[in-house]
Specification:
Blueprint: H1 3-16, E1 26-28, E2 35-37, H2 38-43, H3 59-66, E3 72-74, H4 93-104, E4 110-117, E5 120-127, H5 138-154, E6 158-164, H6 172-176, H7 178-191, E7 196-204, H8 206-209, E8 218-221, H9 232-239, H10 250-255, E9 261-262, H11 265-279, H12 304-310
Parallel strand pairs: 5-6, 6-7, 7-8, 8-9
Antiparallel strand pairs: 1-2, 3-4, 4-5
Helix pairs in contact: 5-7
Length: 311
């Protein structure tokens, strides 16, 4: 028995070997390759602290950061037919749905809620790209209609966050029918003279771009978001020409008049507060936790007895 080989070396290796770090503590930025600590990334709203690349964020996390104190009430959405076409590719449609629900923890690709943003009551809807690429199916159509109806009933503006790969192929023509349905829902808001603000996030493509995502009174996008109907590769193969640099990205669309603003995620809440209160003809929001000052006509006059005493 070799004492050094069999005892000393394993003992030293156990003392000085590097401890394995759990993989779920870090994420790699797809833009700059920086390793980002999950907690730090979450505190920065899923924006890279090195290059400011905007990573995907779930609708629930977005709402927690958007609404005052993270408090909002979910709006119920009518359930559509589960599998209207009995669609099957490599898997059955219900199996894909169950897998998406398990991985995201959400029922479907859109979350609808109501609450206050800077003490301004609003209805908000957000798509989840991680749920079957945020594809627009009958549930998403029902969700937008439910959000619009709630906004009209409560006289609140509607803010929608889009993120989708287009229509959901497993629902075929029924998915495409959501384009006119959601357009009618937007028209309901316009007839009620209520603001409809769209925040386009990466990516927003296909039938979503061709319907409710481009019908907002104000169009805002997150930096470097891909916004298009057909992707750049399809267009290049069709027209057989090289596209301009950054074609179909948020900054390019802003320069060519397709968007009103390109706003970083960390600045988006304050910008929405200003825009919403202007469009609703309300006074500027009071920043911070202090109570709003009383209007001049609401200040109580001194009592007569106090006036006599002073005289």
């Amino acid at each position: 028995m070799n004492w050094i080989t069999n005892y000393v070396r394993p003992r030293l290796n156990s003392l000085f070997s590097r401890r394995e770090v759990p993989e779920n503590l870090w994420s790699k930025c797809p833009e700059c390759g920086t390793m980002l600590f999950h907690r730090e990334l979450a505190d920065n709203l899923q924006v890279c602290t090195n290059c400011e690349h905007h990573l995907p964020i779930s609708p629930r996390d977005r709402f927690n950061a958007l609404f005052d104190s993270g408090i909002f009430k979910e709006i119920s959405v009518p359930e559509p037919i589960a599998d209207p076409l009995q669609f099957r590719d490599q898997k059955k449609y219900p199996e894909r749905m169950k897998a998406a629900q398990k991985s995201t923890g959400e029922k479907e690709a859109m979350l609808v809620g109501e609450g206050e943003i800077g003490r301004t009551p609003v209805v908000a809807a957000a798509q989840d790209f991680s749920f079957m690429a945020g594809s627009m199916g009958m549930y998403v159509g029902n969700a937008i209609i439910a959000a619009a109806e709630r906004a009209v009933k409560t006289r609140r503006p509607l803010v929608l966050f889009s993120a989708a790969g287009g229509a959901r192929m497993q629902e075929g023509i029924l998915s495409l029918m959501q384009m006119p349905r959601t357009t009618v829902a937007v028209e309901m808001l316009k007839e009620a003279q209520l603001p409809y603000i769209v925040v386009l996030t990466h990516p927003t493509t296909g039938g979503v771009t061709a319907s409710y995502a481009m019908l907002g009174d104000v169009q805002i996008a997150e930096p470097n978001a891909l916004i298009c109907f057909a992707g750049p590769r399809v267009i290049e193969q069709t027209i057989r020409e090289k596209l301009p640099e950054g074609f179909q990205r948020a900054e390019y669309l802003l320069e060519h008049g397709m968007l009103d603003r390109v706003t970083k995620r960390g600045d988006l809440r304050e910008e929405l507060i200003v825009i919403l209160r202007m469009m609703m003809k309300q006074a500027p929001a009071v920043m911070g936790e202090l109570p709003a000052p009383a209007a001049p006509e609401q200040i109580a006059a001194p009592a007569p007895a106090e006036e006599d005493a002073k005289a």
